[in-house]
Amino acid sequence: MSSSLVETVDIKAPVAVTYALWSDVTQWPKFLSHVRRVDPMDERRFSWQLSLPGADKGFVAELTEVVPQDRIAWKTIEGVHHAGVVTFHRLDDTSSRVALQIEYDPNGFVEHLGALTNLDSVLANYDLGEFQKLAESTAAGDGPRGL
Hints:
Elements: E1 3-11, H1 15-22, H2 28-31, E2 35-40, E3 45-52, E4 55-67, E5 71-78, E6 82-92, E7 95-104, H3 108-117, H4 119-139
Helix pairs in contact: 1-4
Domain Coenzyme Q-binding protein COQ10 START: 11-117
Protein name: SRPBCC family protein
InterPro entries: COQ10_START, ORF3, START-like_dom_sf
């Protein structure tokens, strides 16, 4: 059984900031609560280490599409089955909308329970909220430098 989720968040930061943060692998553990570590293997592949309720998991994901300031898409090539896309939408000069879509195959009781009870959606919303805080503080000049 495949599961999917689609979540969005409006952010008081321009697309240039939201895209720059999301496209920087070093930022991911700051806003993806279940991500412990992401290591680039080359320009398109990344090794992920996750800590999820009831299990630690690892997988390798590959970027399948990158359109600067528009979209980043990926799929796993090793480990769990997972694919997704994040898109960046300009609302005005100082704000943007980030949309996250993920397709995955839940494995084990905890992942099936998360899919059935929408806990995966709650986690995605939490993570997008953390991303919103990071992007807004960055846009205000309080966040990561060099963006």
